[in-house]
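FAQ: What does the model actually see?

It sees only this:
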Amino acid sequence: MAKHGKKYLEAQAKIDPMTQYAPDEAIQLVRETATTKFDSTIEVHLRMGIDPRHADQQVRGVILMPSGTGKEVRILVFAEGDAARAAEEAGADFVGSDDLVNKIQGGWTDFDMAVATPSMMKKVGRLGRVLGPRGLMPSPKAGTIVEEDDLGRVIAEARQGRVEFKVDKTANLHMPIGKASFTQEQLMANMVAAMDAVVRARPSGAKGVYIKRVTLASTMGPGIRVDTNQASALKVA
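And it is asked to produce this:
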């Protein structure tokens, strides 16, 4: 078992492992127990009551965090002609076609989000083995295959705090909801948006308890159990 440092143990001592905290109390605690010298990322982790092996039990979607994420997002756009010019004008970090495809096939993945126009997917499809495992493959469900007219909107949303979520093979969801430097109100607004989006994304095949466990944690910090019923009831006004 890994040994934890003094700061981690001091932070852990502030948390009762048997308590399921109200969302606002959990957010206050996660800010207090962020132990890193850098600005820790605050994440919400959900244990889902679904079987991800079944197509009708997939949980995924996109959230526009009202307080942003505090992260600088490097955006790559696969586009040609007028669409490429539109992406450049909208502020994409990397824009291209065959040149980017070849560069990625060579092992380069120094970006956080990939967007493509529909006409580019014949070329981008070859990158599935590289981009898929990293969660970077453009997809209609993630809203990252878009027409030229929508490129500006998608790029702007990514800058503002666009977060994609998708259940993993172990039936868990992991989402950043901000930084330790965020205010209580900013983190709460983002958590409300995150929980509301997950509840709305409940698949048709989900039976029984949909969200089994909710945990908040900062980077390298201890986990804080959140009252599942209260968290699941959070709604965007």
